[in-house]
């Protein structure tokens, strides 16, 4: 069964967030939590100490800008034109050079093979549904240098939050609203298998159980 998707629909949400004066996808409190996760991942011994990083689903740019601030050559790909324009404005404001590309993570043809030392899932993989997930992982494999790192941080497990429970379709493990599959809540072992099926070697992983919110699977894998 092919599920209906609407990745460009994220643009409407970014337009609302900009109007509301939010900093990006996350509010300030959510950003602090996510930022500290990114900082922990950078500090991990397996994370490259320098080089080039691509963020998948770079939104309004905060993560890719953080990498640029730390001296990495940083790039991001994002489906929402509003978010890309917002991210480019922030890069100019902060005097940081980041390549923000508007496009879908299912097609990374903007970059040659072996382009990046690391690819970071900017909480985007759980937005990708069905066979598109294979495309993202095979494209990610292609653009990573041999030995390059894939960092995944993705919602997983059983639905916990009331809204998620309401929208959850157990047959597909997707959150579906208005007839569109919008988030995939895979079992950790299934997501890990997708990663290894794409050719990656799993370095390590953990499931973070978050009280009251969805669990996250954190995975470090190598090309
Ligand atoms: C949870 S948000 C995180 C945004 C950003 N990484 C951050 O940390 O602020 C997930 C992002 O993935 C983007 N996205 C969803 N589907 C996409 C696709 N097919 N291609 C590119 N970006 C996509 C969304 O527009 C959204 O910006």
> Helical amount among residues, as a percent range?
25-40%
- Give helix and strand order, one letter per element, not per position: HHEHEHEEHEHEEEHEE
Q: What are the low-pLDDT stretches, counting only 5+ consecutive residues below 50?
A: none
The CATH architecture can be named as 3-Layer(aba) Sandwich
The CATH superfamily is Vaccinia Virus protein VP39
What small molecules accompany the polymer chains?
S-adenosylmethionine
Describe this structure in words.
The protein is α/β, with parallel strands linked by helices and 223 residues long. It has one domain: Vaccinia Virus protein VP39 (Rossmann fold, 3-Layer(aba) Sandwich), CATH 3.40.50.150. The chain is 34% helix and 28% strand. It is built from 7 helices and 10 strands. The strands form 2 sheets. Strands 3-2-1-4-5-10-9 form a 7-stranded mixed sheet, with helices on both faces. Strands 6-7-8 form a 3-stranded antiparallel sheet. The longest helix is centred in the first third of the chain and has 16 residues, at 28-43. The radius of gyration is 16 Å and the shape is globular. It starts with 9 loop residues before the first helix and ends with a strand. The mean pLDDT is 97. The site of S-adenosylmethionine has 25 residues, from helix 3 and strand 2.
């Amino acid at each position: 069964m092919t599920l209906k998707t609407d990745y460009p629909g994220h643009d409407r949400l970014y337009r609302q967030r900009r109007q509301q004066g939010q900093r990006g996808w996350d509010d300030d409190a959510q950003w602090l939590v996510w930022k500290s996760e990114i900082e922990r991942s950078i500090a991990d011994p397996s994370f490259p100490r320098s080089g080039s990083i691509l963020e998948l689903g770079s939104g309004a740019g905060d993560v890719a800008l953080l990498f640029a601030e730390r001296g990495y050559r940083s790039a991001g790909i994002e489906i929402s034109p509003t978010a890309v324009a917002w991210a480019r404005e922030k890069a100019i404001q902060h005097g940081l050079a980041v390549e923000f590309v508007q496009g879908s993570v299912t097609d990374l043809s903007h970059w040659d093979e072996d382009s990046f030392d690391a690819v970071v899932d900017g909480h985007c993989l759980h937005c990708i549904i069905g066979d598109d997930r294979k495309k993202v992982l095979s494209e990610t494999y292609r653009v990573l240098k041999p030995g390059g790192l894939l960092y995944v941080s993705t919602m997983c497990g059983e639905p916990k939050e009331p809204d998620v429970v309401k929208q959850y379709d157990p047959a597909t493990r997707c959150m579906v609203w208005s007839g569109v599959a919008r988030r995939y809540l895979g079992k950790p072992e299934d997501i890990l298998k997708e990663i290894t099926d794409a050719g990656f070697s799993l370095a390590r992983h953990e499931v973070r159980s978050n009280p009251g919110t969805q669990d996250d699977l954190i995975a470090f894998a190598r090309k």
